[in-house]
Amino acid sequence: MRIDRRIIFVLIAFSVAIPLIFKIGLPNRVTKEVRMVYDAIDELEREEVVLVSFDHEASSLPEIKPMADAILRHCFSKDLKVISFALLAEGTAIGDQILRDIAAEYEKRYGEDYVYLGFRPQYTAAILGLGEDLHRVFPEDYRGISTSELPLTKKIKNYNDISLVISIADGDLPSYWINYAEARYHQRLAIAVTAVMATTYYPYLSSGQIKGLVGGLKGAAEYEILIGKPGMGGKGMDAQSIAHLVILFLVALGNVSYFLGRRNNSKGTG
Amino acid sequence: MSHIFWAEEIIQKAQVETTCATGRKMEIGTLISALLTLFVFSFLYKDNPFYKFAEHLLVGVSVGYFVVVAINTTVLPKLFLPLFKQGNLLYLIPGFLGFIMFLRFSPRLSWISRISLALIIGAGAGVSIPAFMQAQILTQMKASMLSFTSFEGIVVMAALCTTLMYFFFSKEHKGWLGRTARVGTWFLMIFFGATFGYTVMSRISLLIGRFQFLLGDFLHIID
User: Do A47 and A176 belong to one domain?
Assistant: First the structure.
């Protein structure tokens, strides 16, 4: 049996579009690893400093944005101070936009409640440099203001003043955070990665090198449940589940077709 | 850095509104994004000039953006300003090392670039090897030595030993070694299955993101 691949594309398109238009409301369960990130942030005291690193490119925005939105909402709702930057060039403007939007939701003031430091090339040097002196790695913020003058950053020296680092990534940059910030400076680290990267980081979760893991759109949807603020993650989960069912059906159909074809061939030759 | 920030501010202020298919006002950026998304989707039917245009535009814009960010965040503040504005001549050394990297384009002089490469590789290895040993080997080994009294500990140890056996190539995989290595392949298959499942989820998420944009921001069918 042969199915034109374009029929499969149309099936997948409908399986994504229809649940987005007509909401089904399939249940979503919060997993342990997402709750661990939530707990790591939730147990911080008011005004403690969280470092959020946008370690991604523009192409992974549909997965990154819901996770970043949910985590930043949690941070700002807890009145934590957020310092943020990007270690990949394409994430620079995206990080700035997301941070500004979520900060505006909670009426946070730039320079006092949050600061965006922009892009820094050579991520190994940047991560290691933050262990020594933040002002040397980032003499100015994204707007060109000296970090020694901004009320939030002027009192931050290095990782000793940062309670938690959260890497929002679509590649292997969290490995660098683990190698250099966690292993060398014992910096508490949580990560939010695209689903395709999630399995890579489960060993670090078991070993305690990361304090939690948010994986892809599903992770974002779970985090939205925890903070009680529906967002893009939850809205996409119906479509995600239905699309997976269609793919499972197609995989099963392909296997049945293959085994039937093989049996017919063996009968023909036998 | 500030140059990029102000450029983005100007672009945001200059956003032009147009009227979409449903009669609502929309930003010109949304219209361009929607058209480019449809151009890329058109490849699913077959290769065509619209897809080619979108593909080339993506590559060009990505490279252009990266070059501008690199110049503004690295070349200007880390080399040109200290050298020419502050007169710090020490910056001539990294500047020279950076310049000779470009000699790779000349077959006759490309050997000179090895000086910079040697420095990068040497420093990189010096920094990364101890950190890698600590984070990726010692801590991971410690974590794999869980208590044998728990089911999880037994599974982890069995998976670790049998998978390592599969990658032991100094002896032919026959007899007890062959059987153990075969169990290792089952654990590997489970890992590959989980990774494939997550990959499918990731790709579908990207499609959902585009559909949310097309049905929401562009057509206003959904919130």
Answer: yes
Is residue A79 located within the same domain as residue A154? yes
Residues A246 and A147 in one domain: no
Q: Which residues of A touch B124 (CB under 8 A)?
A: 124
Same domain assignment for residues A13 and A125: no
Number of folded domains that form chain A: 2
Of A17, A218, A244, the CB nearest to B215: A17
CB contacts of B2 in chain A (<8 Å) are: 140, 142-144
Sign of CA dihedral A108, A109, A114, A117: positive
Token pair recorded at residue A161? 């003043």
Neighbours of A203 (CB within 10 A): 16
> What does the pLDDT read at residue B222?
87
Token readout for A238 is 């119906």
pTM confidence score: 0.87
Same domain, residue pair A260 and A225: no
Task: Kindly list the residues from chain A whose CB atom is less than 8 angstroms away from the CB atom of residue B4.
Answer: 92-93, 118, 142
Residues A12 and A64 in one domain: no
Residue B187 near residue B163 (C-beta atoms within 8 A): yes
Residues 6+ apart with CB under 8 A from B22: B219, B220
**ipTM, interface predicted TM-score of the complex:** 0.87
Span A222-255, pLDDT tens digits? 999 999 998 888 889 999 999 999 999 999 999 9
Amino acid, single-letter form, for residue A167: S
- The H-assigned helical ranges of chain A are 5-21, 32-42, 61-77, 91-105, 123-130, 134-137, 173-176, 183-185, 195-207, 216-227, 232-269
Residues A65 and A95 in one domain: yes
Strand partners, B37: none
- Whether residues A69 and A9 share a domain: the answer is no
B104-148 confidence digits (pLDDT tens): 999 999 999 999 999 999 999 999 999 999 999 999 988 887 667
Query: Phi, psi (5° rounding) for residue A198?
Result: -60, -45
Is B212–A232 a contact, with Cβ atoms under 8 angstroms apart? yes
Contact A94, A119 (CB under 8 A): no
Its domain, for residue A18, covers 1-26+239-270
Instruction: Give CA–CA dist A137/A152, Å, rounded.
Output: 16
pLDDT at residue B1 tops 50:
no
Chain A: residue nearest B223 by CA?
A21
Closest Cα of chain B to A208: distance in Å?
A: 8
CB pairs under 8 A between A and B: 156
